[in-house]
Design goal:
The complex is a heterodimer.
Chain A (H helix, E strand, L loop, with lengths): L7 H37 L4 H8 L2 H41 L6 H16 L2 H14 L9 H27 L2 H9 L4 H31 L11 H12 L3 H31 L3
Helix pairs in contact in A: 3-4, 3-6, 3-8, 3-9, 3-10, 4-6, 5-6, 6-8, 7-8, 8-10, 9-10
Chain B lengths: L3 E10 L2 E11 L4 E5 L6 H8 L7 E6 L2 E2 L7 H6 L1 E4 L11 H11 L5 H14 L15 H13 L5 E5 L7 H16 L4 E4 L3 H7 L2 E6 L2 E6 L1 H6 L4 H12 L4
Parallel strand pairs in B: 3-8, 3-9, 6-7, 7-8
Antiparallel strand pairs in B: 1-2, 1-4, 4-5, 9-10
The chains are: A mainly alpha, B alpha/beta.
Keywords (chain A): Amino-acid transport, Cell membrane, Membrane, Transmembrane, Transmembrane helix, Transport
Organism (chain A): [Actinomadura] parvosata subsp. kistnae
Subcellular location (chain A): Cell membrane
Chain lengths: ~280, ~250
Amino acid sequence: MSEWVKSERQVERERVRRSRARRSASIATASTIVFIVLVVWGITNSPGWPRVRETFFDGEQFVAALPDVLEGFLLNIRIFVISEVLILVIGLLVALARGIRSPAFFPIRALATLYTDVFRGVPTILVIYLIGFGLPALKLQGIPSDKATLGIIALTLSYGAYVAEVFRAGIESVHPSQVAAARSLGLSHAKTMRFVVVPQATRRVVPPLLNDFVSLQKDTALVATIGPLEALRQAQMHTFNTFDYTPYLAAALIFILLTIPMARLTDHLAARTRRRRGA
Amino acid sequence: MSVLTIDGVWKNFHGHSVLRGIDLEVEPHEVVSLIGASGSGKSTLLRCVNLLETVDDGAIYLDGEEITDPRANVDQVRRRLGIVFQSFNLFPHMTVLDNITLAPRQVHGVARAQAEEQAHGLLSRFGLANKAKAYPDQLSGGQQQRVAIIRALATQPRLMLLDEVTSALDPQLVVEVLQIIRELKESGMTMILTTHEMGFCRDISDQVCFLDGGVLVEKGPPEQIFTAPEQPRTQEFLRSVLESGRF
């Protein structure tokens, strides 16, 4: 059989497709411009706009506050990265503990269930207060007094409970026939988990996990309530001195700049999973 | 006029041609079988007809209208086709009745009462009258596939595409599905099917097409293809099928 030579018809068809693609692109551009113009027009014509522009969009204040806010943000990043690692460990351990069926380990299972119930129920900001002020008050040996460390502990406890549930959902989504296959090869429950179930579960839960981490990134600002000089706290201090809210805007911008790449990465991974499943 | 005309269709995947200029005419009330080894391109050809794949060259016409035109409305085209898959693909969260009435009601605007009456009619015609309220996981594979065929039938398609509809079934369940297809042929339905069931294929087809490496090697009435194939590649394929005991 001959090799494929593009026919006249196909050349014409591809030309039509290209022109339709161009038309779609120009429609998208036009509607975006219209949308932006309407939004900007709506805001700048609101009665309070002159006042808002003064107190929220002050260029000088922005420049003055930015270095401090950025410096504070480094602490946010530190809190975020350390908690993230701890949360993954705790989340996986708790999820596995909830899956143990052996009667001897009942207390562990009960404890894991109690933990997820309690920490998913209590608002994160309350956990931060309780840990931040309550833990040092115990005056126990070896309890850290550094507010940032206490913030990390609080965030880890709070988010660990969520992440444990995400892991558990992932573990339960692995088809029972996979466990049956592993157990019939003679693998123990623990080895089945380690070599067969958890690797498959982890791949499936990456997108929801990243989603939780995007949320964690911004919740590092809640630690401001117990005092460490992170981004929001720095912005607050500038605001107290000047009664100008521009530093808050600076902090918001920095948070957005960090979460956007994370959100896109989540989308990208989710799309890749979809492609692999051939949808 | 032909129901379906396939005119010089090419399909490439990653620089490799899976279909290499296929020509085929399907007349009204005709049953056309595509046979050939896995990877010969028969399933890809069906996927091109229902526009799940875009052809890379050539054209496909349904009732004389080019459906491979980039400006053609894909949904409009698919409304006129009934497709049944190897793996049934019933919606697990719906009863048999809801599976069948979904497209008539949501796509074709048929009133619920009328759609359900028609669905009950089809179910009793094909021996599933007592399964209307059942969920797919309460049915055997053969029953599920019969429901899938009824679901495709409920939109009164111009052409039915059946892709390996018995491949996922136990041998004793194959019979009931083949019976339904025979009945469809008797009622005058135009069909294209891919199959590994050579005995059935010989029985039911008006035209048999043997594909190999993306090329339509030989086509003709079943008596000719199965008793006196002209092409060496067809002879070789039929010999291997015979040896595997599937004929």
